[in-house]
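Q: What structure does this chain adopt?
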Amino acid sequence: MSSGVAARRDAKKLVRSPSGLRMVPEHRAFGSPFGLEEPQWVPDKECPRCMQCDAKFDFITRKHHCRRCGKCFCDRCCSQKVPLRRMCFVDPVRQCAECALVSHREAEFYDKQLKVLLNGATFLVTFGDSEKPETMVCRLSNNQRCLILDGDSHHEIEIAHVCTVQILTEGFTPGGSTRATGMFLQYIVPGAEAATQLRLMAGEDANGSKRQAAAWLVAMHKATKLLYESRDQ
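A:
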C-alpha cells in the first residue's frame, strides 16, 4: 500500500453534530468497524415525560437526550457525561444510566485491549488446508480496519470480511480457569465462493511471547463482541 493511500485511510476531520464534536474519518468508507452511528433522537413532541422515571417535563424539569440511545430523560436520569469513543466524540457526552454503564465497560477496551491489538503478537499461522504453519506477527491496523499478518509473506484481512471467530483455549478444570492458546478465523475474500480459514496458535514461550499472544487473543475476543454489536445496530 502506498503512503498516499495509507494517509487517506487514516485522515480525520472534526465535525459538529447536535450531540457534540466528533473526530471522524475523512472518508466514511475508512471508518472503524467497531464504530456506532449516532442514534436518531426521539422527537421532543413525542416524549412529554422522562422515559425512565416518568417525571413530567416542564420549565423546571428539563428534558435531555441520551447521546447513545437517543431516548429522552430528565436531568436526574441522564446526568452522567461519559466518553463515547465508538461514536468518535471528542469530549464525554451526556448518557442515561444504562448507556453510561455500557460505555464505561467499553472504555476498558479502548484504554487497554485496543493497545494490545495494535502492538501485535507472534503466532504460528496456518492458512486453509496447509499443513505447514508460518511464524507471523499479527496486529490490528492503525485505522482498526484490517488484521495485518507479517512473516515470510504479508497478508491483510479486512475486519468487515471476518465471519467467524473462535478463541481456542486449554487448561479448563471445574471451577478453574482457561488459557487462550489460539484462534480459528473465517473470512470472505471478495469473489470467492467459500470462506477462507485461518488458524493462529501461540508458539513456545520465548521472552514472554506466549503470554503476549494470550493477551492479544483475549483482546481480540473483546473486539469480536464489539464488532458483532456494530453489525447488529
